[in-house]
Design a protein that fits this description.
Strand order of the largest sheet: 1-11-12-13-10-14
Structural class: alpha+beta
Shape: globular
Distance between the termini: 21 Å
Bound molecules: zinc ion
Number of domains: 1
Radius of gyration: 21 Å
Number of helices: 4
Largest sheet: 6 strands, antiparallel
Helix content: 10-25%
Number of strands: 15
Oligomer: single chain
Length: about 325
């Protein structure tokens, strides 16, 4: 099965151009951090050591563990934080990143990104469905009774249905903006003191009332994004009604864009309806494996969600059906 390339029509191109202008008018990109494999990059100081989250130094906490500034589950092996203490590291792993991992698992598996062990594959628990990528083509094996996928030969789309393991949406949101705070230039951290406190609070219900909505984009096809990229965009004009800090995280087939809550800087827009636009990406202009799909996800729920179902649709150019007797 070969996916069909995506190229936007002229009216969509005009919208993209207008959005680029809006972003440039309202925000300055202040940071672009790339990580993944390769030689190690360090954030923070080794001497003296101080945790950027709880504020404790070596007198009051320990720094024995290797803390990844961006979770390893997103593909980061080399961006290491000297300024994350062991206690905060444990807390983030158990209370935040575990939920992010469960939330992203179906996307990571179904993105068909080649992993450590070579050919990636996905199969359902009952063994009735299996998908592989072989020589750049998707190969699907399925029993007639299986309903975890459907194919529309007229529209030339393949839709996969999945069920997530139980997870907490608000913990997913926290783990996303924690990544933004992990790479944040130190001189800007005072603008996030209240959310730093919220980040370390066990009770998810005691959060600030800022927006927990994120743009989540899925880019079909193998390896659309190499490594992990984290960008920060700071509001240009302090009087404009847009959130103070925007963060974009791109890894594998998924891009998240959201504002990092800053009660200190966003007091005047608190409770107001504000406009945020999705930052265009190069895959919006042309992508050989089909159209990137963006949706707005509300991650405000502090409860554990069970049986969260989702689906991914990919378009294709050509399919060959093989029936085994
Ligand atoms: Zn700490």
């Amino acid at each position: 099965m070969n996916p069909s390339p995506y190229q936007p029509p002229n009216d969509v191109l005009e919208v993209i151009e207008a959005t680029v202008t809006w972003i440039q008018d309202n925000y300055s990109q202040i940071l672009s951090k790339e990580c993944g494999r390769g030689s190690k990059i360090f954030i923070g100081s080794k001497n003296p050591r101080k945790c950027r989250y709880c504020g404790k130094d070596e007198q009051d906490t320990s720094f024995r563990k290797v803390a990844h500034a961006v979770p390893e589950l997103l593909g980061n092996r080399n961006l290491i934080a000297y300024d994350e203490c062991d206690r905060c590291n444990d807390y983030f792993a158990v209370n935040l990143e575990d939920h992010l991992g469960k939330y992203l698992l179906p996307l990571r598996v179904m993105s068909l990104t080649p992993g450590k062990k070579g050919h990636p594959s996905y199969k359902t628990e009952d063994g009735n469905f299996r998908i592989d990528i072989i020589d750049g083509e998707f190969k699907i094996e399925s029993h007639d009774s299986d309903n975890s996928w459907e194919i529309d030969e007229e529209l030339k789309t393949l839709t996969l249905h999945f069920t997530r393991q139980p997870f907490c949406p608000l913990a997913v949101f926290k783990s996303l903006f924690k990544i933004g705070l992990a790479v944040m230039p130190k001189d800007l951290l005072p603008n996030f003191q209240r959310v730093l406190g919220w980040l370390l609070m066990q009770d998810e219900r005691n959060g600030p009332p800022e927006s927990t909505k994120v743009f989540q984009t899925f880019i079909p096809g193998p390896r659309p994004i190499e490594g992990v990229q984290v960008n920060l965009y700071e509001r240009k004009n302090q009087t404009s009604n847009v959130p103070y800090m925007m963060c974009l995280i791109a890894a594998s087939n998924t891009i998240f864009q959201f504002s990092i809550p800053s009660p200190e800087k966003d007091a005047k827009i608190s409770g107001k309806q504000v406009t945020i636009k999705k930052i265009p990406i190069k895959h919006d202009l042309y992508w050989p494996f089909g159209k990137p799909l963006t949706r707005i996800v509300d991650l405000s729920n502090a409860d554990i969600i069970s049986c969260d179902r989702g689906s991914i649709t990919m378009s294709f150019e050509e399919a060959t059906r093989v029936v085994y007797g």
